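Posted in: Protein Modeling Q&A

I'm a second-year student putting together a small comparison for a lab meeting, and my supervisor asked me to include a predicted structure for DinB family protein. I've never done this before, so apologies if this is the wrong subforum. The sequence is pasted below exactly as I got it from our records. If anyone can share the structure token output, I'd also love a short note on what stands out.
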Amino acid sequence: MKADLHSYLKGGRESLLWKLDGLGEYDIRRPLTPTATNLLGLVKHATAMETLYFGVVFGRPFEQLPYVGDGAETNADMWASADETREEIVALYRRAIAHADTTIEALALDEVGRVPWWGDTAVTLHHVLVHVIAETQRHAGHADIVRELIDGAAGLLPSNDNLPPVGESWWLDHHRRVEQAALDASRRSS
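Accepted answer (user: helix_wrangler)
Welcome! Here is the predicted structure, written out as tokens:
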């Protein structure tokens, strides 16, 4: 079971990082939602999640991240300043992943840790793995949408886009059809 859970976590990580491929500095950083969601910020946030849940919770601390904890700017883990490079953020995420993987491999699923930011709640590695999988996949989904808004690129993983094998004209027609259905439903409800 642990190997299966770990596999889902690895898939989410891979998908999240893949969304950065082929984009310039502006596109990986620019905010595309009212809450400023951006691709590099999602990776930075995932780094914090991995270090906290697989580090602090199980007494296996990772290096202190300047954008997490007491004194950190609100939401600093969700965006990258101009001074933070893509390479540094991705390298830090990879180190956080390696640290998390070591914890996952070393501990049994029933190993107990404590989550200080949940009122010092006792949790098992199983619980934390499920939580971090859900969060990572959720943020990978955010990244899917943000990337599609940037350049139209879509898909699950580099090796499996999980999309129907249709051309651009089909997608344009599909978009128009979905838009028309929304308009028709809106008119009917008025």
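A couple of things worth pointing out for your meeting: Strands lie at 112-115, 121-124. The two ends are 50 Å apart (CA to CA).
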